[in-house]
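Please check this protein record:
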Amino acid sequence: MKAAGAERPSPVRIAMWSGPRNLSTAMMRAFGNRPDCAVVDEPFYAAFLRLSGADHPMRAEILAAQENDWRKVAATLLGPPPGGRALFYQKHMTHHMLPEIGRAWMSACRHAFLIRRPERVLASYAAKRETVGLADIGFVQQEELFDRAADLLGEAPAVVDADRILADPAGVLARLCGRLGIAFDERMLAWPAGPRASDGIWAAHWYDAVNRSTGFAPTAPPPRLEDPALRAVAVAAMPIYERLSGYAIG
């Protein structure tokens, strides 16, 4: 029996680092379907928009809806998880982490990195925005954050490849949970269709496919990039993808 007045265990904060169009929202759905887990969706998005001046879809709405002082965002991430849950899953976009945004808060988290072949990322991203460069898809920033997390942990953090998740959701997610020091829950494998209250306001532009989903769909054949500019971005991103894929959970 728990002694009267005993403190509750500290929550487990999981920082999942991904670029855009990388199965990141489906992964958030998987963790969010656990009854012991609260999720937060791209908490630094508005701070990134304010600091960078980037012209993203729904820019004004995002700035109005979300805290855009990165220091206050970081304090929230270090605070109690919503609903007092034991797990606090934080879906982070690597390209949001500008140099001006501090990193000290990362020491309180367990880190994992979600990767995807750059041609798949670019084919999906280009369907939503007219122009895309290397900085937009977050590969360079992901490598920097990977190295920082490795320094904090003293070893390489967990890496999950989107294609491997789609090929074996139960196996890869179970091994990911093991790396994060938490129990696997089979409820991560399927979820109800539709939006969530925890989704960012930008869901109206980006989440149409995931809102129709009820689980991880089989992987599709790799796309062919017809645009030479997109192919050049893919070539530039590939060495980073190949490096991180060497650490991917099988």
